[in-house]
Amino acid sequence: AAEPAAAALANLCSVEAPNREAVRENGGVQTLVSHLLNGPEQPSVQHIAASLANICVNSHSNQEAVRECGGIPALLSVLLAYVSKVQKEPPPPANGSTTPRSGAETERGSET
């Protein structure tokens, strides 16, 4: 339920300034930041981060609200978790294959 709600908020806040202000005035910033603190692996994190980014567009009041409720450290935590996860994943094979080929197969393949 959180993922569709966060996606809807991201969309609502992407264009109209009154929507961004309404989210802040109704406790939306604190709610979004609280959900970020639940862990960076939850499926709604991308939408929550997008919502917070959109809420902050051209609004010093909203930027201040995000900062005051701990949004900056929460966003940095999500970013660091993502970077750490990506660095631990093995790189894909250079040739796009999903399985490594042996030397003999490579030699035979180059003869054709």
From TrEMBL:
Domain of life: Eukaryota
Classification via PANTHER family: ARMADILLO REPEAT-CONTAINING PROTEIN 4 ARMC4 (PTHR46241), OUTER DYNEIN ARM-DOCKING COMPLEX SUBUNIT 2 (PTHR46241:SF1)
Protein name per the record: Armadillo repeat-containing protein 8
Positions of the UniProt region annotated as Disordered: 87-112
